[in-house]
Amino acid sequence: MKLGIKMTKKAENIAENIENDAEIPAEVLEAADEITLQATGANARIEELEAQLASSKDALLRSAADHENTRKRAEKELQDVSKFAISSFAKDMVNVMENLERTLQAIPENERNTPLYTGVELTRKELTNAFERRGIKQITPQKGDKFDHNLHQAMSQAADPSVEPGGIVLVMQTGFILHDRLLRPAMVVVSKGATGEDAHKVDTTA
Description:
The protein has about 210 residues and is of the alpha+beta class. The chain has 3 domains: about 1-60, no CATH class; about 85-135; about 135-205, Head domain of nucleotide exchange factor GrpE (Nucleotide Exchange Factor Grpe, Chain A, domain 2). The chain has helices at about 1-20, 25-85, 85-105, 115-135, and strands at about 135-140, 150-160, 170-175, 175-180, 180-185, 185-190. The strands form 2 sheets. The protein has a 3-stranded antiparallel beta sheet. A 3-stranded mixed beta sheet has the order 2-6-3, with no helix packed on it. A hairpin with a 2-residue loop joins strand 4 (about 175-180) and strand 5 (about 180-185). Helix 3 packs antiparallel against helix 4. The chain is elongated and about 130 Å long.
């Protein structure tokens, strides 16, 4: 009870001093300064923690993005391995396909009803179907098509008034692609125009 009265009286005295513009007690000023310092320190600590949190969040987001990019690259590499693992074998089978086609062309017209011709033709068709299932396709440009160094290899140039400069005049050998990767370019003759002037020359490097 006495303590309560003491504190009340002290509070009344402080209020009275303030009202009368009296000097504020030193202990009150010290306490206020201490509180101000603590508040300032607390605010600085809060700002520091907020900065650390923002930095940690940014690092986490970058790490997550890097992880996602790494995962996508790994998936792409795995897909490429799966798609193109047969590249060497496909090139060998392309030669087999061409040998079958040469054999068919070499058989005279009057012998194309024989079991030999039928057997070779069936083998060629089955190989063609196997190519399609594995994503192997022929590159068969037509006369007049524009030369594409990504798909064609120019073996020579020729003057041909019926074909625009840079167009294909003749296909010497068909090409092949495996999915979107070139196995072998189509070998072609490219037009240099009707006159064969140097101005009509095109870039035929593959």
